[in-house]
Amino acid sequence: MAKSIDVSDLNIFYGDFLAVEDVTIPIAAKSVTAFIGPSGCGKSTFLRSLNRMHEVIRGARVEGKVLIDGQDLYGADMDPVNVRRMIGMVFQRPNPFPTMSIYDNVLAGQKLNSKRMKKTEADDIVERSLRSAGLWAEVKERLDRPGSGLSGGQQQRLCIARAISVEPEILLMDEPCSALDPISTSVIEDLIHELKTQYTIVIVTHNMQQAARVSDETAFFNLSGVGKPGRLIEHGRTEAIFSNPTDPATEAYIQGRFG
Amino acid sequence: MTSTQAPAPGRAPIRRPGDRIFSGVSLGAGLLILAILAGVAIFLTVQGIPGITASPDEVKSGKSFLPYVWPLVYGTLIAATVAMLIAVPVAIGVALFISHYAPRRLGQTLGYLIDLLAAVPSVVYGLWGIGFLAPHLVPFYAWLDEHLGFLPFFGPASATGRTILTASIVLAVMILPIMTAICREIFLQTPRLHEEAALALGATRWEMARLAIFPYARSGIVSAAMLGLGRALGETLAVAMVLSVGVGTVTANLIGSDNPSTIAANIALGFAEATGKSVNALIASGLVLFVITFLVNFAARSIVDRRKEFSGAN
């Protein structure tokens, strides 16, 4: 479990439009890497290219290499469906399946893998996943209730439970706290700290303090101009990026002077 | 907090004229529907009761009401059920193809063509059924009889192809457009968020449809099916044209020449020549159809409502 990611010379296109240009970044296993940068700079697009979710949009394609523990993510024999089973994702807005109970939501990924399992085994997975997501105590009495009846923060943790129930190698989080209140946010940040002992985590955030709090490494993305592609400006240890950035744009962004 | 205080007793809350007019208009529209429905129900009941109580020698059929109407009810339900069995999966499949699989331009063209199908008058479907479909289905019916004849549905085959199954197929084609159009619109409205949730878990497109689209669209699919079913139950001309004339027999055989008839077709065929109590008997059969439609809709709604809190509307 927990694999490293190695991205080299990655360009991401939507049709003819170059959205993200020339990204090279290594991401270590069992670490938390935060992507920061102004809106529209391509950090979400880049995150989505790490589990091929950007392909949901018609005409999206990439050039370059993404290696997961040395295995080419865009190799001819890689099925995006298998990629996404290996690399889980949590979205900006909590999106539990509204027609399913809390229990079924957690097991949704398991059912896709079409493993036949016994009730006790399923119960174990649900409990383990909800415990890891820090939600077990709050929902154990009402597992058969609809997931959409939970609060926003609980829903987001339910989505995290759903993502980790299939034991992915890597967990991608696209601004997981931007729709949540500060208390729910801090619960999820604590959770990220615990999860990184088992998973490689990549998180996109607009919240600089959050990046500083949760991540080991930080990567700063920026646009070189309106209509130009987003680029990776610099990346490194979080303390280094925040205390002593090499690029003036990074410093300006971190200090809140733009973006 | 002053704005949220309840108004003092005896003082009406301030209401804008626009709000008042709009609520009046929508209330009026709602009442109008109820009034029309009640009007139809009262007419059918008042005119139908003499037909129900008429003695066998007062009506043309020479039977008392229950034995008279039962084969027609049976035929109506069989024709509508078979039509639904054919049309619902096709409608869902086509709608899913248009909304999620087809390239955008192809999907639009296809959607447009299907909407066109809805504009074809039922007499044309009847002509098509009798002039094209029936003769072309004869060899197929013979094949069914030969190979699946052990099933009660495929007994001795009709030589003309004018059978209840042909009528059902025509009905299926007729109800397809409305069901497809509604399903397509609902499928298109599936929140992107839910679709991506499924895809990010490693769902294939079909699994995404099962996880995100169908549950979301459930109540819409039922509504679409109910509209289609309503039309299938009530369709008159096409069925009357396709089926060979007969009183209607109760038989499980879908492809025989001795076919059941439907209530609506029977009314259309019999009304012109009917006199006296026979007219009342026809109207009473209409009342039975009205009640059947009502019950089916009621049942469908209660199925949808049973899982209301899981509908995602909250």
UniProtKB/TrEMBL annotation, chain A:
The cross-references to InterPro entries, in alphabetical order and at most eight, read: AAA+_ATPase, ABC_transporter-like_ATP-bd, ABC_transporter-like_CS, P-loop_NTPase, PstB-like
Q: Which UniProt keywords apply?
A: ATP-binding, Nucleotide-binding, Translocase, Transport
- Molecular functions per Gene Ontology: ATP binding; ATP hydrolysis activity; phosphate transmembrane transporter activity
Task: Spell out the SUPFAM superfamilies in the cross-references.
Answer: P-loop containing nucleoside triphosphate hydrolases
Query: One GO term of the cellular component aspect?
Result: membrane
GO terms for biological process, alphabetical: phosphate ion transmembrane transport
Quote the protein name from its UniProt record.
Phosphate ABC transporter ATP-binding protein
Q: Source species, please? A: Aeromicrobium ginsengisoli
From TrEMBL, chain B:
**Which SUPFAM superfamilies does UniProt cross-reference here?**
MetI-like
Per the record, a Pfam family? BPD_transp_1
Report the locations given in the UniProt record: Cell membrane
Transmembrane regions: 21-49, 69-98, 110-143, 163-183, 236-256, 279-300
Q: Give the principal location in a single coarse category.
A: membrane
GO MF terms, alphabetically ordered: phosphate transmembrane transporter activity
Q: Which domain of life is it from?
A: Bacteria
Q: Which UniProt keywords apply?
A: Cell membrane, Membrane, Phosphate transport, Transmembrane, Transmembrane helix, Transport
Q: Which InterPro entries match?
A: MetI-like, MetI-like_sf, Phosphate_PstC, Phosphate_Transport_Permease
Biological processes, Gene Ontology terms: phosphate ion transport
Listed under GO cellular component are: plasma membrane
- Transmembrane found in the keyword field: yes
Q: Which Gene3D superfamilies match?
A: MetI-like
Domain ABC transmembrane type-1: from-to ranges: 73-300
Membrane protein topology class? Multi-pass membrane protein
What is its biological role?
Part of the binding-protein-dependent transport system for phosphate; probably responsible for the translocation of the substrate across the membrane.
Family listed: Belongs to the binding-protein-dependent transport system permease family. CysTW subfamily.
Protein name as annotated: Phosphate transport system permease protein
In which organism is this protein found? Aeromicrobium ginsengisoli
